[in-house]
Amino acid sequence: MNQRVTIGDVTKVAGVSGTTVSRIINGHYEKMRLATRQRVEAVIKELHFIPTASAQRLRQRQGHVIGVLVGDIANPFSFLLAKGIDDILKQAGYDILLMNTNNSLETEKRALQRLYQQQVDGIIVQPNSGHFSQFSGLLRAQIPLEIVDREVWDLPASVGTVTSANQDACYQLGRILLNHGYHNILAISAHFAEASGQIPRIAGLETAANDFGLSYHNIETRGHGRDWLARTFTHQLAQLSGRTAVISLMGPVLFDLLSIFKKHHLTFPQDFGLVSFDDWEWSQYVGDGIFLLKQDMELMGNYAAKCLLKSMATIPPAAQRFCPLKPSFAPQFNFSINY
């Protein structure tokens, strides 16, 4: 008796992924090239491949789903990112299976395994791990993958990534601070993920400080409470001479800083300039306004979803290695209108 032909046999001969074969078997041709469909159908006919009824029912039940992993669903940035992804995938006929990794490497690992077991058609990850070994099993399983927002350091060329130009934006911020008469940069960070977007921001600020002759200082808040931050911040600020720009490297840190400023009767831009990575409309009403480096997370989610769909529909997968979304400055606020 001849050995039963499997989907794996079809993928090898047709040169496509298992996801593509599954979509064709179940009549899902959206965003698929006609030539690809015809080639796969020809191979299916040539090999006399007949999917079992049980396997076909399983794929129909679980197909057309994209897994989306975000670092912290409570962070408005992650929420907007997921919304941007869903807006595009919904138009393409896909549902998303949204999972929160809580900025945990172990939770992220379990979530990836869960999505693999669910036989999702593709995965978009806001990564916690900075090493690709966390995600390499997806390539072996031929599951299309897109990295978004944060950078994975050893990412292979076959995997796409969509991120902001964090390092360049912070370098340009250093130039702006110099031109407005600032001498010191005091950054406040909170690293909750190994692949934190704050890493390239810090690198950009450090390089700018070195190139432009500014002093650079960073306070890392992870593991400490607001009282500790208040003591550390006020002490560090008092040690600096000349004008200081205080930079919140992530949105939630800003709330702690504003509370500390109120308690200690500190004002901006009178006592220091205030900069934040945010997209909060209300920030313009705080004091004389907060100088923002704004990131459109919904747009980033749109890009990631479009890149994943393109990768899924292209043979071989066409990854967009880097699709920079540059943060926009809001120069009408804070120190820029005072100096």
Please explain how this structure is put together.
By secondary structure, the chain is an alpha/beta fold. It has three domains: 54 residues, Orthogonal Bundle (434 Repressor (Amino-terminal Domain)); 118 residues, Response regulator (Rossmann fold, 3-Layer(aba) Sandwich), CATH 3.40.50.2300; 129 residues, Rossmann fold. Helix 9 links the parallel strand 6 and strand 7. The chain is elongated, with a radius of gyration of 24 Å. The C terminus is likely disordered.
Strand order of the largest sheet: 7-6-8-9-10-11
Please name the fourth-level CATH homologous superfamily of the largest domain: Response regulator
CATH architecture of the largest domain: 3-Layer(aba) Sandwich
Q: In the CATH hierarchy, what is the class of the largest domain?
A: Alpha Beta
Task: List the helices and strands in order.
Answer: HHHHEHEHEHEEHEHEHEHEEHE
Sheet/helix structural class: alpha/beta
Helical segment count: 12
**Number of DSSP-assigned strands:** 11
Bin the helical content.
Answer: 40-55%
Shape: elongated
Kindly estimate the percentage of residues that lie in beta strands according to DSSP.
15-25%
Main beta-sheet strand count, sense and barrel state = 6 strands, mixed
Say what the CATH topology of the largest domain is.
Answer: Rossmann fold
Oligomeric grouping of the chains: single chain
Distance between the termini: 85 Å
Q: Please give the radius of gyration in angstroms.
A: 24 Å
Give the low-confidence spans.
53-62, 331-339
Keywords: DNA-binding, Transcription, Transcription regulation
InterPro entries: HTH_LacI, Lambda_DNA-bd_dom_sf, Peripla_BP/Lac1_sug-bd_dom, Peripla_BP_I
GO molecular function, one term: DNA-binding transcription factor activity
Protein name: Transcriptional regulator, LacI family
